[in-house]
Amino acid sequence: MKPAAGVAAALWLAGCALLPKGHPDPFAATWPDDTAREENANGAIFQSGYDVALFENTVAHRVGDTVTINLEESTAAQKTSSTNTSKATTADIAAPVLGGNPLHIGGKEISAGLDSSNKFAGAGDSALSNKLEGNITVTVAKRLSNGNLVVRGQKWIEINQGREYVRIQGVIRPLDIQPDNTIPSYKVADASIAYGAKGALADANRPGLLSRFFNSILNPL
């Protein structure tokens, strides 16, 4: 048991070494660049830094802006297959004739026959469905040359002894953003959506390290 535990510990450490020290969270929020503002003399009405664009929609379009994604994921798939085959073969061999009369051995006429049959029946049924609803507000991480926006973000909810999270990243078109700065998740291109949990409850539902090792392809036994 001790050598196996040592191998499992070495594999775990090797997996941790794949991420460099200080590796940033890929779903962390992206903050806008803080550029130094030029000090201008403020007038009686105009105040520098408080200007509002009159001919611009107040939706996300710059790095660091936020946009709310409405999670409307619902997938259902079903497949059924059925196969039936049947094959039968029958062959009769007539008794040999000698001198115009059937050949007899032991007072019985010689004859032969061959019967063969083959049947196969197969059936298969597969069904898959999932549903995810909710809202998550993410930040614009990058603005592409064609105007599309790369968005990503995450939401953590702590309940009792566990923490649940929703993560999403993908590419959206500014034209698909609604006037209230929201967009449905089915309009997010190359979307990567993850939902999971961490904590005591999640750990209790997960096999231990040694159990996962002995049930993996790395187990030599």
Distance linking N and C termini: 12 Å
Q: Helix/strand/pairing class, anyone?
A: mainly beta
Helix content: 10-25%
Strand order, sheet with most strands: 9-1-6-7-8-10
Q: Tally the helices: what do you get?
A: 3
In one word, what is the shape? elongated
The poorly predicted ranges are 7-23
What's the gyration radius in Å? 36 Å
Describe the protein's architecture and organization.
By secondary structure, the protein is mainly beta. It folds into two domains: 25-30 and 49-76 and 130-221, no CATH class; 80-125, no CATH class. The protein is 12% helix and 47% strand. The chain contains three helices and ten strands, in the order H-E-E-E-E-E-E-E-E-E-E-H-H. It has helices spanning 2-16, 200-204, 209-214; strands at residues 66-93, 97-98, 101-102, 104-105, 108-109, 112-143, 149-159, 162-172, 182-184, 189-199. The strands form three sheets. A six-stranded mixed beta sheet has the order 9-1-6-7-8-10. A hairpin with a 2-residue loop joins strand 2 (97-98) and strand 3 (101-102). It is elongated.
Topology:
Blueprint: H1 2-16, E1 66-93, E2 97-98, E3 101-102, E4 104-105, E5 108-109, E6 112-143, E7 149-159, E8 162-172, E9 182-184, E10 189-199, H2 200-204, H3 209-214
Parallel strand pairs: 1-9
Antiparallel strand pairs: 1-6, 2-3, 4-5, 6-7, 7-8, 8-10
